[in-house]
Amino acid sequence: MEIVNTIAALKSLLETARLAGGKVALVPTMGALHQGHVSLISAAQAQARIVVCSIFVNPTQFTDPKDLEKYPRPLAHDLAMLETAGCDVVFMPSVKEMYPQPEEWHIDLGPAEFLLEGEFRRGHYQGVTQIVKKLFDAVSPDLAFFGQKDYQQVLMIRQMVKHFNMSLKVISCPIIREDDGLAMSSRNIHLQAEDRRHALVLSKALKYVKEHFSQYSLAELLHKAAEMITATPGIELDYFTIADGDTLLPATSKQQSNLVALVAAKVGDTRLIDNMLLFD
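RESULT FIELD:
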């Protein structure tokens, strides 16, 4: 496994590797890796000859400086996990490397930018697309792999790829869950034991909606899910919605073919998101 810290070194390494042929895949991460990330590496290995995993805690996507400060950075753990997973290249740039000078960034990501997470974290997706564009430019991947847990993020990145007419394929991979249903997340490390138990209601509410989708109206499903979550101690619900999977606008009919249930809530001091496709 090669570890590189500069764009120039990365480009040189990949140029040599590309001469042997085969596709290059990128798995962008902010570190604090878990089995969800490993699943992305595995998916990438199945479709590409070279897999690059980036580890970079991107400052421009944090709307709360305290959130950036406390974001976990277990580097030795991450590298050991990537080594075991058989990752080919790890790209770990400094902030100075990715942002050598101040820059302005704003692109049209469409109306969905301002819904759900966009409403609660204004400017977040501008920061996300800013760094992902930089990573795409550095790696020039044929394929890029992201987790479905950040459902809205994948939509925004696809919009960014379309905006710049980039010739790569963005692939969304299924959510990996703990045995009890909790969606794996780098933020789970911040959950106290009691909060960890309470957090299970998020996946339970999503599962309830999926399993009872044919029995109740959209309004009834939303009410029952919200009721389950708000009745749980220590949880502050930001939103629970059943939305069009392409636009994220609230579903108006159960006959829509691409529906997804999405939830965000503060559990103790930690904000978690989760979602579930209603038609697999």
